[in-house]
Amino acid sequence: MNRWLRHHRYALAVALRRLRLHPFSSLANIVVIALMLAVPILGASVLQSSQPLARQLAVAPELTLFLKAGTPPTAQQALLARVREEAGARIAQARLIPRDRAMAQLRADPTWARALDALPDNPLPDALIVTLRDSAAPAREAADLAQAWRQWPEVEEIQLDSEWVRRLESLLSFVRMGLGMLAGAVVIVVLATVFNTVRLQALTQREEIAVARLVGATESFVRRPFLYLGALTGLAASLLALLLAWLALTPLNTILGGFARSYGLDWAIRLPAAPDLLLSGLLVALLGAIAARLSVTRRTRF
After folding, report:
1. Do 118 and 196 fall within a single domain?
2. How confident is the model over 49-69, as pLDDT tens digits?
3. Nearest-CA neighbor of 268 among 283, 287, 253, 281?
4. Which of 101, 202, 286, 291 could join 299 in a cystine, given CB atoms 3.0 to 4.6 angstroms apart?
5. Is there a single domain that holds both residue 177 and residue 194?
């Protein structure tokens, strides 16, 4: 056990020494990887912070069922009871708005009062307004209910007030897909950058590696410092990417905060949770080690 720890301590010390011996090239590689990592971190921050914003934005999705002219009050009450019974827990509220009450509400607004006085009779239909509960896919839920309720004989037309929800869901789905593709690009950049860096390191250390092999160094002993070099490069790039993302969020939140407050919203973009950031940093370090392993496998055999 002590021998194993001593070997890994030695490999880590060699990797740190090689980073110090080539500070400019090491820093350039770290900056390149960090810039690529900062973009998905910012994207994940926006996506995560947009979830509560969707709940703060307007009201829950509503469906307005316009009833056919001449539907008697008893049939309207029966329809209201049927909606509550069949929709069940999916709805938060269902209320009936008779045409006379709707007209009275419009007449109470001075903007509409004069225009309504010119009408010979009440043109408004009786309406049933259904407010849905919050769910994972409110737009799809509203569309399914509307499709079922359109088949009812008392319903003339249904208006969905959830178009904004559908658009927001589409936008968030697009962002998730974009982040997935960006994560794939980051993996390629990390692998290619670390692979090329370690390959150049191995070429410059050919004589040192050859001497080590002559005195009995094993393949794993020679390769281990390069693996630590790749892992340290990925870890340093992750820390720098986190710092860059944090610095970028400061001016962004200043601008977005004022914009959100003008709409009565409290919104700020925050970095993902610490466990997620730690896991992503470890994954990048692992990718660096894998790239180094692929690079030195054929370069250290003499």
Report:
1. no
2. 776 665 555 456 778 888 888
3. 253
4. 202
5. yes
DSSP for residue 271 = P
What is the structure's pLDDT at 169?
67
181-232 pLDDT tens trace: 877 877 887 778 777 777 777 666 666 666 666 666 666 777 788 888 888 8
The residue with tokens 């301590």 is: 9
Within this chain, do residues 251 and 275 fall inside the same structural domain, yes or no? yes
State whether 49 and 80 are in the same domain.
no
Are the C-beta atoms of 227 and 14 separated by less than 8 Å? no
Convert 10-43 to b/e letters by CB count within 10 Å (16 or more is b).
ebbebbeebbeeeeeebeebbeebbebbbbbbbb
- Using the structure block, give the residue that is written with the tokens 């109470």: 108
The CATH number of the domain holding residue 66 is 3.30.70.3040
Same domain membership, residue 256 and residue 198:
yes
| 73 and 29 assigned to the same domain | no
Structural domain count, the chain = 2
Residue owning tokens 């690529």: 36
Distance from the Cα of residue 135 to its chain's centroid: 18
pLDDT tens per residue across span 155-169:
888 887 656 666 666
Q: What is the largest CA-CA distance in the chain?
A: 107
Q: Domain check: are 68 and 145 in the same one?
A: yes
- pTM of structure: 0.61
Last residue of a domain, one of 113, 138, 160: 160
Q: Which amino acid is at 192?
A: A
